[in-house]
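Possible regression after last week's pipeline update?

I re-ran a chain I had predicted before the update to compare outputs. Posting the input and the new output here so someone can diff against the archived version. Not blocking, just want to make sure nothing changed silently.
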Amino acid sequence: MEQDISKSQIILSEIEKMLKEKQITYNVLTHLTWVEERANGKRFSMSEHIRALIYSLLSNNRPWQQIEANIEKIDEIFFEYDKDKILATDADVFIDKLQAIKCGNRNIKNQMNSLHANIHKLERIEKEFGTLDNFITSGSPIEIADLLANSIKYKLNTLGLALAMEYLRNVGIDATKPDTHIRRILGKNRLGYSEQEIAGEIEAIEIIDAISSQTGYSASKIDAILWLFCSYDNGMICTEKPHCDQCTLRGKYCNYLAYSLSNSMTDEEKKNARFGSVLPDIIVKKSQCAICLHNKGKYCDVFGEKPRQYASAVINESCPKRMDIN
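New output (post-update):
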């Protein structure tokens, strides 16, 4: 994965501007406060680790907005994360109370039925390492998340890699949660950091870490900026069906329009197409272009022939000639 450093900086800066225009700021995200607190020397207790685990579980396959709106009620449901009180309470009590405030998810029964076992696992980890903080800082975030998600000895039930990364983030570890929004925007059809349409979980984490090294932004901050930009309850710009008309990245820094256009072309159109460009400084390859989005219905006569409409089908080269727009 090779990306120009200035490109990543520009992308993040542009997204921050768009979020600001919508009066959305990542500073309100609590986990960023926890990351800052750990950086300033805070140590997290067993109770705070249990809270982190439960928050991550509740975020599974659902929007966060309803959870956030009921966070105080959730804290009360779990006795402010008093370990002994939680262990003394049947799972069905938590399930019923969470569903009553519409904060359940498709896996909530398995999650709550596994909660006692997961807390006991945390107790064993604490005994082995002295503190849970010693354990989660004994390796890189992805190494610890992998242990929590996949190892026999340390695995927490119902916790996959993405939720394990969120758990770590909720106790102040500078980490990325590779959820659907993050993996999609990093894919080849969006910002193009991955060669896959949807970046893999580990790949997404590695990409964010690389961008962090390039730009000086923390991984958790990059994650927050991208997530706010994509999520339905916040920026609502680069969603599953993106609102490209609201996005200043379209064309030059994002591949979505070109790929969408390419996919709409027939084989005959691709065969007969010649040179072209979707937007300045973006794609073009011989024999792979058709309708030009940049011209917006006008024509390009850069080759001195009968005016044609052009558009690229593959994003892999700079435009060989800047189009003259009539």
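Follow-up from reviewer: compared with the archived run. Confidence is low (pLDDT under 50) at residues 269-326. Marking as no regression found.
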